[in-house]
Design brief:
By secondary structure, this protein is of the alpha/beta class. It has 3 domains: 77 residues, Nucleic acid-binding proteins (OB fold (Dihydrolipoamide Acetyltransferase, E2P)); 148 residues, Rossmann fold; 61 residues, Orthogonal Bundle (Ribonucleotide Reductase Protein R1, domain 1).
């Protein structure tokens, strides 16, 4: 439960929020021998006070909850309506109000210029307060506190893929393209960190012999993850998938071409989402979903369909925390001789002994090693 307190808060803005710190004609004035320039003090320094600072005082609410410390502006809620961000297209957002109407909304400039570590201030799944500008347009005045946030690192910043989700449907394919267990491992580590229930869904099971996937499926099942082996083409286990997503807020992710949109079209037959074929040359999918989109379900709940991910770099996880997010490694980490054991090279390491004795899967241990090393190249699709 988040704690809220209304007060005046000092917040930092992006650099483009304030005017130029000094006159751009200073050099020109010096060349023209401006007397005011010639008499200027030579030891003067700029300080972070007054008009030169990027910090301002705003009235709002500080929230210390699941999504971290954040500031939510104090606004006149009587002039606003609550809505859900369906999708984000550049500078505009599609917002669905409580009465079912959908508006094209811009984001309040104050929200856009707050200095944060996020790539985008508004994401699909956000609950927002909207001030009506017309019958079809509005202004997003405030973003409500988030929970169930799915994030990754992109260009050194936090890329929030979806917000306010209850579960994560990790979709892979048995073939065309081939299943990528290391990518699934990365998704599971992120799910453990975010506290989101993860469900592994393997599509296109009709293209392979299911017996070949038994070692992989049984390994994830023993760790407590639910694994669904389905086929959008033949309809295998679609009813089971439908029961799993109805009544919940689900985000669905995976590589391009694994059949995320195809599965949604089968689960909810009236959606008509655009799908594409896998390239025969490189067995890679083409992007048909270009932005995250909230798709309501007739039986209740919704699914956030996301574009295919070619890489997935973990956000806000330091190397020494990685082992704690591996369910199969976690029981062994406290049995190592050294309390700061990295489980990579030390002697008398319980994790390494478990791998040698066959209690831990070697492939999972290799995934841990690469994530601990923090090598971004191993997050790319070429390796996975």
């Amino acid at each position: 439960m988040a704690r809220k307190k209304k007060r005046q808060v000092r917040v930092e803005f992006r650099k483009n929020r304030t005017p130029r710190a000094r006159d751009g004609n200073l050099t020109r004035g010096y060349e023209n021998e401006d007397p005011a320039t010639l008499d200027a003090r030579q030891d003067e320094r700029l300080s972070g006070k007054g008009d030169l600072t990027r910090k301002r005082t705003v009235r709002g609410v500080t929230t210390d909850g699941d999504a971290g410390l954040d500031v939510h502006l104090d606004i006149d809620e009587s002039n606003c309506q609550r809505g859900l961000v369906v999708s984000v297209f550049g500078l505009t957002c599609l917002v669905r109000l409580a009465d079912g109407r959908q508006l094209n909304c811009a984001v309040r400039r104050l929200l856009k210029t707050l200095s944060t570590d996020q790539r985008h201030v508004v994401v699909a799944g956000d609950l927002v307060l909207v001030r009506m500008a017309s019958e079809q347009e509005g202004i997003i005045e405030r973003i409500e506190p988030r929970h169930g946030v799915l994030s990754r690192t992109s260009r050194g910043r936090r890329h929030i893929i979806a917000a306010n989700v209850d579960q994560w449907l990790i979709v892979s394919s048995a073939a065309e393209p081939e299943i990528k267990p290391h990518l699934i491992d990365r998704f599971l580590v992120c799910a453990e960190q975010s506290g989101i229930d993860a469900v592994i869904c393997i599509n296109k099971i009709d293209l392979v012999d299911p017996a070949k996937l038994i070692p992989l499926v049984s390994g994830y099942s023993q760790m407590g993850y639910e694994v669904l082996m389905v086929s959008a083409r033949s309809g295998l286990n679609i009813d089971r998938l439908r029961r799993r997503v109805f009544g919940r807020q689900t985000v669905i992710t995976g590589q391009s071409g694994v059949g995320k949109s195809s599965l949604l079209n089968v689960v909810e037959q009236e959606l008509g989402l655009r799908v594409g074929a896998v390239s025969r040359e490189n067995q890679k999918g083409r992007h048909t979903t270009t932005t995250a989109q909230v798709v309501p379900l007739s039986a209740g709940g919704s699914v956030i369909d996301t574009p295919g991910l070619r890489q997935f770099q973990l956000w806000d996880i330091v190397p020494r925390e990685v082992a704690g997010y591996f369910r199969d490694l976690r029981p062994y980490v406290n049995n190592c001789r050294f309390p700061d054991c990295t489980h990579t090279h030390e002697q008398q390491c319980a994790v390494k002994d478990a791998v040698a004795d066959g209690w831990l899967d070697m492939r999972r241990y290799e995934s841990y090693q690469h994530m601990f090393a923090g090598d971004d190249e191993f997050a790319r699709e070429a390796w996975e």
